[in-house]
Amino acid sequence: MTTDKAIHYQGHVHELQKKLMADYYAQLTAIAKGQSSTKNAHLLIAGNPVELIRAFGMIPVFPEVNVLQLAVRKQSLPLIQKAEELGYAVDNCAYVKADVGLYMNGYQAPYGTVPKADLLLCNYVGCNVYLNWFEHLAELTGAPAVNIDVPFIRSADGEPSTADLHYVVKQLEELVARLEEITGTSLDYGKLRRTVENSALVGEMWAEIKDLTKRRPAPYDAYFDSVTMMAVLYCLRGTDEAVTFFQAARAELTERAAKGEGPLPEERFRVVIEGPPPWPFLRVFRDMFSRWGAVAVASTYSTVGGIWEFGFRHDPQRPLESIARHMLQYNLCNRTFLQRYDQMARYVDEWDADAVVIHSVKSCRLFSAGQGDMREYFVREREVPTLLIESDLEDPRYFSQAQLRNRVDAFFEALAQRRLTAASDAAVAAGGRR
Amino acid sequence: MTLATVVPLDVVERYRDSVEDRTFPTVREWRARTGRMVTGCFPVYAPVELAYAAGMLPVGLFGAGNQIEMAHADSRFQSFICSIVKSTLELAFIDRLEPFDALMFESICDPARNLASVMARNFPQRPMTYVHLPQNMTSPAAVDYLAAEYQRVADELGAVSGHPVGAEDLRRALGAYNALRAQLRALYRLRAASPEKLSTAELYTLVRLATLGDPIDVEPLIAESIVTALGREARAKDRIRVVVVGSFCEQPPLELIAGIEESGCYVVDDDFLLGWRLMKGSVDETGDPFRALARAYLDGSLHASTKHDLRRPRAAALIDSVRATDAAAVIFLGAKFCEPGLFDYALYRKALDENAVPHLFLEFEEKMWNYDKIRTEVETFVESMLFT
Q1: Is B25-165 a CATH 3.40.50.11890 domain?
Q2: B157: distance to nearest CA of chain A, Å?
């Protein structure tokens, strides 16, 4: 029932993304090498104010994207070990360790050179490691640092309080003053509105693209293929290039959906995947699901940087407030663990999934801490078959291929069996009625 | 043990066992005596005054130590999550949190935050409040935010206890905890000045008692202990003076703390139970008490691994502590899997090396029973300092 045939996942969208990301890293490299005077800010993926950075003509640098690419290229381990030699623990987040190792290596990466930050802008959006990470970068590099403190969601209805919103907007105003100092220019509100408008357009198209996987078959894998689009969504959000890219992506994927094409020859199982991917073994990991005809129709990982599929859009008429709302409310990381259960339950229901797969990564406790309870919830209270597997997003030492494959195989075998039994029961019942 | 040669501290003798007892006998006694409610406060720092102002007793909830076997929580939280998160949940599963009418969690780390959610889902009948402590210490807007946050938390707790928190209630609570913390600071000063008169095991027991009792009751007990300890005639032993850091949340077993001293150290500063003595001075009892408590957290509190104050690196604060207490070395005693602590160690190590302060890295788990390995490591470390 499984297939081990090589599957080609690449499409036009992948090619476009590669080009855009190569251009992006060429810009970073030019800054690092002193060939460009563009200022940069290092910031983090989850719920960030990148629109402000772009409005000042600065370029954002995302350490998370830098280090995940090292992992994909199987170059993270020596950097992780370099950080461990400096005193970082085996149990510390490997993203941070790889970034520290990268800095110690002169920020030289195979995809380009990372410039030292003109500003370390820690958007503290749920992830406490973010705070440690940028604090360490500040100490190691001597770059100036600022924390934007985003109050975590505490209300039962998921709404931030007026005080929360006011607090974040105030900090964004303080950030504007800081960016004016760094760039020596005043904020151009017209440019900010255009940037926010671009984010709104991209958010709209991303939501439409996400909606496509409600179809059968899903035209793309909402976990493994989403990461291709997420790179542009995060690194280029607010730019014209991002808008153009998402127009192309929407057109291509809509066409695939219309033709009834999916990423696999046959879509046998529809799953919701929770947790970041194991970047050092992305392809191997994907194949474990593909051979069973399992396609992700939704994923929580694709909402780390923002949740647009449930209606949020940036508002160019109220740029700072909408950026603040994005940071507070409309990204996975600043929402409670139970809100994530609800989000996944919506995916299961509205995207019509057969099962939940939880990929628990040791590095990221924001994601993983308590996922055993999440499994309990889906299995016991919602009666959704749920697989919980463990590895890591950056550190290849935690990826046990044979063990993972056994777990995945056993899970889908059981799912297939359950389906057969259900079909057989239905046939018997139908026969009885005749 | 050192105690044999000096006058015992009655309070320590009386409470030595009960402070580690996870049936919470002192809390049950208080509850029965007063008929009032209790809020369990997860470390590191909880604004306990808010619970007290709502007529409740805020009680430190430091996991289960080595008192229970894990049977349920292991299936909810993975093997790479620290013990205190799991054992606190386990206490709920085995009904040991029965004396607690409400729980308070704070934004200290990712597992603790997710624990708040897991606790709320599994035990919806027990109200839970989550406090977001600010991490932008320089924004002028932070004090307004935190004052509003404290007002929200006070409203929630007041709704549970049926005693809405007014400004005067909170001022009285500030007064009670100011008095308690003043005694705790005196206790720390006494130990730093004369560690031969007050062992860290004794000090720890007294501070732990402060996390379990009504400040009105505990403050005189600590004052009495200080007087007794000051009157002791103890001779300083040939030990090295050390600062211990890394145990600000999950707590090492008392035997381990005693073992470190018995292995040749005088602990002259530490971050055990840090949140309960976080304020460096008294919180202003005049004016708006919510703002005063917020201001104290932002500008008048000790450095902590869960408080990211870009104005002052924590490694520099550690070096200051070493200098101020005339310590010869630092022992990093970190809880296994505690990410905030482990991150800090990397920066501490760099700063300690740069300042030529000898240091030792130790890892513990609250549930450990055997301390031989750690004792041997400390003894070896001490010998290396005394004899090389």
Answers
A1: yes
A2: 14
